């Protein structure tokens, strides 16, 4: 995430000069960093909207102008980070293999935050379910680009769902269990697990 904001001596997130005229994107980033800062010290399910806004000098109405609740914010953070990775596909030789490696590195670098989100969200707001939905849509988007149509054959759709389900659960075991592997090895496992019929859509 780009760091447009700064912190004061109490380590609270405050407006950077470029954000006094806060646009939607900048406001979301400020709120996201405030939330992640709080999540480094507190269970996600116990963080309040008041704490998020007070931590960065914004108002609650401003928060609700951008997010319906903190779980909506969690989803935005993950989509934002994932989009930054996916947007590089095809640029300077950046490939699907690179997305897997950068994804694994992102999870490793943000391990404590991810574990907090996995442990302290549940039901409809489960972070694991959000990750599965986002990852599925990211893969479906890449397949649609290659097919040049919105229609995805049922067989391909099913393979994507099974692959995403498996890799997300493997990520969970890797971060929360006794599995000691570097991100490079995890990305290699994910790549080797990709069903053969999907490779034609994800690799040139």
Write the topology of this structure.
Elements: E1 6-7, E2 13-14, H1 24-39, H2 49-56, H3 60-66, H4 70-86, H5 96-109, H6 111-119, H7 127-147, H8 154-176, H9 183-192, H10 196-202
Antiparallel strand pairs: 1-2
Helix pairs in contact: 1-2, 1-4, 4-5, 4-7, 5-9, 7-8
What can you see in these coordinates?
It is a single chain. By secondary structure, the chain is mainly α. It folds into two domains: 6-67, Orthogonal Bundle (Arc Repressor Mutant, subunit A), CATH 1.10.10; 71-202, Tetracycline Repressor, domain 2. It contains ten helices and two strands; from the N terminus they run E-E-H-H-H-H-H-H-H-H-H-H. It has helices spanning 24-39, 49-56, 60-66, 70-86, 96-109, 111-119, 127-147, 154-176, 183-192, 196-202, and strands at residues 6-7, 13-14. It has a two-stranded antiparallel sheet. Helix 1 packs across helix 2 and helix 7 (127-147) runs antiparallel to helix 8. It is globular, with a radius of gyration of 18 Å. Residues 1-21 have low confidence and may be disordered.
């Amino acid at each position: 995430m780009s760091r447009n904001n700064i912190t004061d001596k109490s380590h609270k997130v405050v407006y950077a000069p470029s954000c006094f005229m806060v646009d939607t994107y900048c406001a979301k980033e400020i709120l996201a960093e405030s939330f992640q800062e709080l999540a480094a010290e507190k269970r996600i399910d116990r963080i309040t909207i008041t704490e998020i806004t007070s931590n960065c000098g914004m108002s609650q109405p401003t928060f609700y102008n951008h997010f319906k609740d903190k779980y909506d914010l969690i989803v935005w953070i993950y989509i934002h980070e994932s989009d930054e990775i996916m947007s590089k596909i095809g640029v300077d030789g950046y490939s699907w293999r690179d997305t897997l490696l950068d994804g694994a590195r992102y999870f490793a670098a943000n391990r404590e935050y991810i574990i907090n989100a996995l442990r302290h969200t549940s039901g409809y707001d489960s972070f694991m379910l959000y990750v599965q939905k986002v990852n599925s849509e990211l893969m479906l988007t890449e397949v649609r680009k290659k097919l040049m149509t919105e229609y995805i054959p049922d067989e391909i759709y099913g393979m994507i769902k099974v692959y995403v389900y498996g890799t997300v659960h493997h990520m969970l075991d890797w971060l929360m269990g006794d599995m000691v592997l570097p991100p490079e090895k995890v990305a290699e496992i994910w790549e080797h697990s990709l069903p053969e019929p999907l490779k034609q859509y994800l690799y040139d």
